[in-house]
Amino acid sequence: MLVLGHPEYYPRFGFRPAPRYGIVPGFDVSDEAMTALPSDALAAVPCGTIRCPAAFGV
């Protein structure tokens, strides 16, 4: 699960900076604001670049 949000709020729920998992946004945002939470602690986390539809404007 990925969340773009306040870097001090989401870590309390287990989210960590997405770049730690090899997930990077394709737009300008701080590493701390783009967070990820794996759904299965034992499964491999997919990695790559996040791409958003044009409607999001990023």
Commentary on this structure:
The chain has 58 residues and is mainly β. The protein has one domain (2-56). 0% of the residues lie in helices and 24% in strands. The chain contains no helices and five strands. The strands form two sheets. Strands 1-4-2 form a three-stranded antiparallel beta sheet, with no helix packed on it. It is globular. The mean pLDDT is 91.
Largest sheet, spatial ordering of strands: 1-4-2
Uncertain runs: none
First-last Cα distance: 19 Å
The helix fraction, in percent, is under 10%
Strand residues, percent: 15-25%
The total strand number stands at 5
Radius of gyration: 11 Å
State the major sheet: 3 strands, antiparallel
Number of domains as seen in the coordinates: 1
The number of helices is 0
Characterize the overall form: globular
Helix-and-strand structural type:
mainly beta
Q: Provide the residue-averaged pLDDT.
A: 91
The H/E string reads EEEEE
